[in-house]
Amino acid sequence: MSVNQQAHTGPPYGQPQPGYQGYQQPAYGGQSLPGVPQAQYGAYNGPVPGYQQPVPPQGYFPSLGFPLKGSPVSLNSDTSSLAPNFIGSLRAPPTSGAPPPASGASHPSGPLAYSQFEHGDVQNGIPASAAPVQRPPASQPFLPGSAPTPVSQISTFQQYGPPPASVQQLRNHMAGMTIGSTAASAPPPAGLGYGAPRPPAMPGPPLPGQTVAAPPSSQPNHVSSPPPPSTMAGLHPGPPMSGLHGPPPPTHPPQPGYPMQQNGSFGQMRGPQPNYGGAYPGAPNYGSPPGPPPPPKRLDPDSIPSPQLNELPPQQKPRHRIDPDAIPSPIQVIEDDRNNRGSEPFVTGVRGQVPPLVTTNFLVKDQGNASPRYIRCTSYNIPCTSDMAKQSQVPLAAVIKPLAALPPEETLPYLVDHGESGPVRCNRCKAYMCPFMQFIEGGRRFQCCFCSCVTEVPPHYFQHLDHTGKRVDFYDRPELSLGSYEFLATVDYCKNNKFPSPPAFIFMIDVSYNAVKSGLVRLICEELKSLLDYLPREGNMEESAIRVGFVTYNKVLHFYNVKSSLAQPQMMVVSDVADMFVPLLDGFLVNVNESRTVIASLLDQIPEMFADTRETETVFAPVIQAGLEALKAAECAGKLFIFHTSLPIAEAPGKLKNRDDRKLINTDKEKTLFQPQTSFYNNLAKDCVAQGCCVDLFLFPNQYLDVATLGVVPYQTGGSIYKYAYFQLETDQYRFLNDLRRDVQKEVGFDAVMRVRTSTGIRATDFFGAFYMSNTTDVEMAGLDCDKTITVEFKHDDKLSEDSGALLQCALLYTSCAGQRRLRIHNLSLNCCTQLADLYRNCETDTLINYLAKFAYRGVLSSPVKTVRDALINQCAQILACYRKNCASPSSAGQLILPECMKLLPVYLNCVLKSDVLQPGPEVTTDDRAYIRQLVTSMDVAETNVFFYPRLLPLTKADVDSDSLPAAIRNSEERLSKGDIYLLENGLNIFVWVGVSVQQGLIQNLFGVSSFSQISNALSTLPVLENPFSKKVRSIVDMLQGQRSRYMKLIVVKQEDKLEMLFKHFLVEDKSLTGGASYVDFLCHMHKEIRQLLS
Ligand SMILES: [Zn+2]
Known about the structure:
alpha/beta; binds zinc ion; 7-stranded mixed beta sheet
């Protein structure tokens, strides 16, 4: 047993590292990351008197000259009366004025359609009364020196082109819809205040030398770098990393004047923030009736005629009377955010900043808070009291991805070594040293920012304070100046007080009849021969420290001795699967390089040995037990890669029966379909977690194999499940191999324990994700990789204060792939509010949806699906009703008023409700549902976003001469033209939809056939053809594949072909075949629910 005493090998402090472990992270958000020179944003030097911002960043005038197609704003003939300069574009809600009227509202004409729900006007944005026109100048940063007048800026409206016929009809019937997105003097985007006058204590992001932002790209989906051609390439470790010693190299920007730590006092950063008005004169008070209406505005919603339903003439053939173009558009919101926020780095120095959307490509600069790649919150301004939180019903949750991969332009967390004494912590709550701890008494003690306890500074850590009370070594220490960093753990943090051994990977291959016959066994063995050279390795290590072992199995298990001294591998069969043991210790887990020849020989022989097998039955639990026992014997953590094909019906522990029963759908017993059929696997998972044995499961079923049960161990050990139904070598091998390569190579930690500490007043109460918990606070994961996400919910246990805000500290203790014990710390500071409007102004709907989906997907384990769906609708209706009641101006009940930051909540919620788990179609199997349920539970915000609202791109509109993506369109059949080809992706599948009238030349160029009828819908890849269109489309597909954690299955769908039904399931704005409401209908339904709550 080797005791790991090696020097730590983390990245040197101050040197940007390439992707974690050299893993080249594909570009985020569909756009390549611009190489922003350090000088542009590097120096966060605090207040700079000479800093002048000659012109406002262009990104802040999104709607000037920017086509508003799809904007939720209705058109008004009198555009000069509109002043919404920031229509639909800002994450912060409008603060004054009211939305423009819908044209139909002003001029109701023609027969009006009724939908099944009564509904009236739809309006977004905070209306007048919530609008602090009287905001202090500091909150109006757009034009330094010249405060914008609320209605002086005229947005240029670009009328949406002639809508499709069906839309046109709707428009004719449209009436009563008042839809305003944002209004005139909208506040700046949350958290950003470029050029704004600031209080001296918190100078914020603008930097010397930082000129205005680059103009927003006119192509929101800009792509400029090709995706990595193969996962093999670029996976070698990056530049050598050495220990964290000495001063930061010059590449690290000097950090004097770091704004958050004057006097080390967290409270001091409080103050009027650009995005946060503090006192809002005229804003409605929490819990009290809305304040007096503001001075009349031309855009006051009340001034807009809003016909009541009983005034409306009946409609002949009603469908709905809402113009789909007039309701909030996800595409527009995404595009606006990209334009507004994609050109500036997101600097994390300011408390409570709302980050750009996950669909926006942006760089992050850590100045004291964790990057949104690590933590995103449902709201960045949380209610001070529990009553207020309950009233709003807005869940307070953080979505945490502790080991997230970073783009190469960003710096990995620095590794801090405090030697034998280990990290400095609070005596009472054990929080780790972080930027928010306050040093007192000349630096001899520090006061904890979480529990206020005062702790002595250990002698070796003592440092003098400067005249502002800040330690003079402030900028030399990541744990004092950055939001995320790592500590090298001491032996005290290790199991049994022993440093861990490097982990092991065990490959366990099903060699039953189906696996052999499909060619799977041979494929896996061939792949492993090369893949084993790409095991994760740490820093500058020449080879991976991970050892490997091999098992094959059907009804019995075969272990292999691949000791380097052997001429040939040796097989040992264990047929007594009832009490699993490992028949060999020496020679089972080996170093790849040392045993290369023997391993190669084994991988050559396995397919031959089982080529003629007749064995169809398999075991499953004993396979996991075998891996677990092997790791126990080797005294190490590790991962099992299990390749499995069938329901384990052979006589053995954990044997399963086929209990699939679709008749249970929509009954009270439906929940049993999601529950494991035996508790055996839960107990096994517990044992695995105790040993640090993580299980990744690759399934290749031809029929039901009970994913709900087989998935228990992978799920509870932090592992992954991959499923390839009806696996066929020709069509599926590429996808499987890509997944396998990424899974084997990706950054992973073992034996992980995560705890989230919070400042007094709130605490973490609930957790969602792939892990095991043996108590109420510690999230245990046998393995944790860079894709795994844990969603944490917080509840109040006391009052919070606006002055001190709220703090989160996520500490992850784990063993690196080289066996080094480390602590990764992420800190995040949030604002707290006594005004509900501040909560709604700083929410993030994508994160809210991530939480709500996970909450609902867990709910189906214990409640009927209908109950879960109703609860979701009810909660969201309450959220929106609370806003309407407390934050919006008094207006006609016929208006639907949505908070600007939540205007997509209805459309996204509807997508969750219509998802396969909550409303399955006839083609969705029980295993599919169990699989999706577990998958979503570990997804990050970007993944849930595209999963629930897929990305739809018109390929025929792609510019073959540029790197950009075509502009995305909304997910509705109405938006499809039969003369075009479209791509739809949701993170699991890519559909290529071909209209019946597509030009023959395009078909020839993309598919290499001469007519529509000749296109094969069995294609799993696009043919490689030498023409610009083919190259462009394939590059788009490759780029999208590179962005996702799983290789998506490509499916070609021809219009009017039977496969089109499958495709239409993903057109989520339409009514679904399974009864799911269309977006318009659902919006109306939500409106009705809200009205009921308010009446
Ligand atoms: Zn404490």
